[in-house]
Amino acid sequence: MASTAWKSLFGIMASCLLLLSPAAQATIAATADAVAAQGEKKPEIANFRCLRCHADPEEKVKVRRDGSKNFIFIDSKVFDHSVHSKQLCTGCHNNVNKLPHPKPLPKSVGCVECHKKNFAALKDKSDPLYKRLDNVVQQMDGYMHSIHAQPNKKDISKINATCYDCHDAHNIGTLGSMQRAEHRLKNPEVCGRCHEKELEQYKASMHGKAVLEKKDTKSAVCSDCHSTHSISSAKGDPMKLTITKNCGDCHEKARETYFKSYHGQVNKLGYTHTAKCYDCHGGHNIKNVDDPTSTIHVNNRLKTCNTCHKNAKEGFLTFHAHGDATNFKKYPDMFIVSKFMEYLIYGVMIFFWTHVILWFYRELMDHLKGRGHREDVEHPDAVFFRRFSKVWRWIHVLFAMSTMILVITGTTLLFSHTDWAKAVMTLLGGPIWEGVIHRTAATIWVTVFLSHIGFALFNIWRTRKTFRWFGPTSLIPNWQDLKDIIRMYKWFLGFTTRPKFDRWTYWQKFDYWAPFWGATAIGLTGVMMFNPTLTSQYLPGWVFNLATIVHAEEALLATVFLFSVHFFNVHFRPEKFPLSTTIFTGAVPLEEFKYEHTQEYDRLVASGELEKYLVKRPTRTVESLATILSALLILAGFLLLTLVLIGYTTLH
Fold first, then answer.
1. Least buried of 139, 249, 397, 430, by fewest C-beta within 10 Å?
2. Edge to edge, what strands does the sheet with 614-615 contain?
3. H or E segment at 69?
4. What would you report as the CA-atom Rg of the chain, rounded to the nearest whole angstrom?
């Protein structure tokens, strides 16, 4: 009523102002229309009116002026079962104000704006529609940052793909509906409208034949690998990582074994320069392993390996790319080696952790009762015994530091599933630099080890007339060590007194000889994996699978032992707490030496040689530096042990 009155009023005024200029008359007319628009709502156009034209099956296609085809037919029965069935046609085609509409009709469909507007209008989070629309909005956001939403390189006025280029807006079904299943089967053809070359490759693949010929909705389509909305360039790292992850959504066991390999560990850390699923199996042209044209067929496999490993030999062909150490029937060699290493770790750690607990209890009880020995090293006149030469001390420093570097660089790959591994890898500068650092530390470690062997052999040769292989000064285990172990356990349980030791105790001998096994196991396997191409010229490929197991498990054993058992024996038992600096200063208080190595002390006193080993107390500067170095190495060791235990306990 109000709008009609205003129109009448403006009509009277217009009649009175006919003598005005045409421009003035036009202004008054426009003002009248604007005022009227404020008072009335634009009438809705019912869908059935649109379908009078668009539901005619005889006129499915209109040819545009540019020669392109415009499919205008809408199947009303199909539309009525779509998710948009209750929406007005003009809700999407919002530039249609009246019928018949202008031709050609410019596109004005706003999927993103509409879905976001509907989602913003929902306040009740318990509403089932809220979760659905929330998911849609997230997909929209992914699309807006995807390569499809970017300007087309050939025509920057257009984007690569819109929503309705992929979706049939008039036939979108709900999850689990027949429409959804049909849309999935059409997915390759929809993508193939733009990606024609990829579609042709896909048609010949095992996935393509299953989908397009057998109508198997469970087989992989484009969106399964490339994702649905957050699609980026296949040349970029994000999409490479996404595709690799998505392959595992169907091939779970293959992904599990892949992530246990070096290739997969690097990929899991977020880097893509190592082999990924499609590097070996192909991308759009994946064939069955028995297919002669498959990239992983036995006749083509070496060529596939050569794309990364130049000049790799036939030895590569027996490598188990997806070897499963838990599958005895299929991979007995990996199973046996894995179980051996597993039982070795458990056996060693159970024995020595039991040893640590019992020792701590007994020594603490004796300490509380005033037994044992704690020399007051603060006394300025305390006499010290020279325990280690400069060579031994430098060997220990280099050995300790290189070992810790090896641990942090190696376990970063081994436990690539953890957040701390990703952070460390970033700090190291990526897997390539991690490899350089790891191999440099390994070279130092092996060099120190071999130098020590040479130094030890020289000393044996120099004292060959008096040296005894199983004598009291030798590090070679003997029957007395077994007797000492038995007596030590009796002391733990309170049945006897603490045994008296010579120059080397049984646990010190174990600490000494363990690196010989470790250096052999870790060193040889590391060398094999360092240059796989050279190794494959002499050894079969399955050796790499065994080398990977031994290298990782032995390193894990060494890490846990060093930073728990060894630290306790040297630093944290009550008689040593809070730390020992002997290995860095080279000297130990004489009374402490007498208590720890009574038999050697008595022998030196009896032979009159004790005076040769007595030295002044290290200066405060030396003691302070040794204390700082010891504390830093202990803290670093505990940090590494914590990271390793976190990684190990969350590995499976």
1. 249
2. 587-589, 384-386, 614-615
3. strand 69-71
4. 39
10 confidence band (pLDDT: 50, 70, 90):
very low
Task: Find all residues with CB under 8 Å of 82, minimum gap 6, and list them.
Answer: 170, 171, 172, 173, 179
What mean pLDDT do residues 374-393 have? 76
The span from the CA of 482 to the CA of 473, in Å, is 16
Residue 317, token pair as written in the block: 């062909």
Q: How many helices (H) and strands (E) does the chain have?
A: 30, 5
Strands (E) in 342-395, as ranges, are 384-386
User: Residue by residue, what is the 3-state secondary structure of 425-444?
Assistant: HHHHCCHHHHHHHHHHHHHH
pTM score of the predicted model: 0.80
Query: CA dist 577 to 189, 561, 573, Å?
Result: 72, 18, 6
Residue 433 CA, distance from chain mean position: 17
Please state whether the peptide bond connecting residue 578 to the residue before it is cis, i.e. omega within 30 degrees of 0. yes
Strand partners, 385: 588, 614
Cβ-count burial 425-442 (b if 16+ within 10 Å, e if not): beebeebeebbebbeebb
Q: What H or E segment, with its residue span, contains residue 488? A: helix 479-492
Look-up: residue for tokens 């690539």?
A: 416
3-class secondary-structure state, position 563: helix
Query: How far does CA 586 lie from the centroid of its chain?
Result: 43
- In Å, what is the CA distance from 309 to each residue of 100, 212, 534, 542? 67, 36, 10, 16
Are the C-beta atoms of residues 491 and 499 closer than 8 Å to each other? yes
Residue 225: what residue type? C
Task: Report pLDDT for 32.
Answer: 42
Q: Distance between CA atoms of 149 and 111, rounded to whole angstroms?
A: 13
CA-nearest of 488, 415, 407 to 445 is 407
Beta bridge partners of 587: 386
What domains, with CATH codes, occur in the chain? 2-39 (no CATH), 332-412+442-649 (1.20.950.20)
- Residues 492 and 498: their CA atoms lie apart, in Å, by 8
Contact at 8 Å (CB) between 88 and 97? Answer: no
Distances from the Cα of 616 to the Cα of 382, 422, 521, 587, angstroms:
8, 49, 42, 9
Specify the 3-state DSSP secondary structure of 182.
helix
**Strand 69-71 versus strand 587-589 pairing type:** unpaired
Q: Is the pLDDT of residue 443 over 60?
A: yes
> Does residue 590 surpass a pLDDT of 80?
yes
Instruction: Characterize the bridge pairing of strands 614-615 and 587-589.
Output: unpaired
Q: Give me the amino acid identity at 346.
A: Y
DSSP letter, residue 170 = G
Of 78-82, 523-527, 635-639, which range is least confident? 78-82
**pLDDT value, residue 106:** 65
- CB count in 10 Å sphere of residue 338: 21
Mapped onto helix, strand or coil, the DSSP state of residue 62 is strand
Contact status, residue 299 vs residue 258, Cβ threshold 8 Å: no
Task: Pull the structure tokens for residue 115.
Answer: 């879905």
Q: Measuring CA to CA, which residue among 482, 628, 637, 500 is closest to residue 566?
A: 637
State the residue for tokens 């929902």: 122
Q: What are the structure tokens assigned to 556, written together?
A: 């894990």
pLDDT of residue 642: 97
